[in-house]
Every structure is written in C-alpha cells, then in structure tokens.
Structure prediction request, 181 residues.
Amino acid sequence: MNTRLKTRECFQPFLPYLPILVQRNPHPQHHAPGWATAATAAPRPPHRPHAAMDPSVGLRSLLDNTWVRFLLSKAPLGFLTYTSLVATYRARSDPWTAAFVVSAYAILMLFFWCVGSYEAAPPERRGRLRIIIFVLSTILIILFPFKLSSTMSFAFAAVIWSLGGITIAIIFYLFFIDGNP
Prediction:
C-alpha cells in the first residue's frame, strides 16, 4: 500500500477541521490519486465543533460530579488545618502564639460553618445567623491586627487598626443597614 495514501487515511477524520490551505497540494503536478488540489477541492462544510471538543462541556460535567465538588470544597479546609497544625507545632515553645493559632483556626472553622448554615437556613432563621457571622468576622478582624501590631511600629500599627475598623464598618453596613443578604 502506498505510504502517502496510508497517511492520508489516518488524517481523514481531521481534515474538515483543518484550514483549506492544509488540504491543498503545493505541487499539483505530483498529486496522489484522490488528493484534493486547489482547483478540485470541494467546498468545506460549515464548521460545527463536536460537543466533545467544547472545553466547557467537560468542565461542567466534571464540576457536576459530587465527589469533585466535595473535594474542591474540603481541600482548602484540609490545607488550612494542615498549616494550622504546623504553625501550632512550631509555636510549641511560645504558648501565646500557639493560643493565637488555635483560636484563629477555631473561630474561622466556626465562621465557615455558620456561613454554610446561613446559606441553607430558611429566611426566618437568617437574622440570628447574620448576627453570629458578624460577631465572628469582627473577632477575626480584631484578632489579626492585635497580633500584627506587636511586631510593627506605631504608625504601621495605626494603619492596620484603621483598616480593620473600616472593614468592620463596611461589613456592618452591608449586613444590617443595606438589607441585601
């Protein structure tokens, strides 16, 4: 069997997806039987990509998989747990730093649990959860400038504390004054 024909048969399913220039033979005097030249090339069919070629279809079906969604939602929490354990282990000689890491981790886990409960709660129960979420976020916002301000100069500490206060004010406005959930 002719090698050129064998190669052509292998690429036959892909020819409609290639540009017409690839299908043209640059040397029409040496064309193989059945090879389309510029003069004899049939008009190409309109390009309709196959559903399997659409990258969003594969991604959507992957994200619809419950195990993948479970892993994507739990992997960051697992990483946070791991880094918190490592930080606690490294701070074993300093009890205040270890207490900071453990308390920040516990408050953050409680915060995530309350946000998940808020999303699944009926509207009449969301008001109480909104208050709890605000209190937890305020504690976290105060906790980090408190720890950072001990390592900075007064000017930088004032900037960090003012940014924390502005953040708390914005969260309060969005949660309680604006009214949109």
Summary: Confidence is low (pLDDT under 50) at residues 18-25. The two ends are 71 Å apart (CA to CA). Residues 91-177 form one domain.
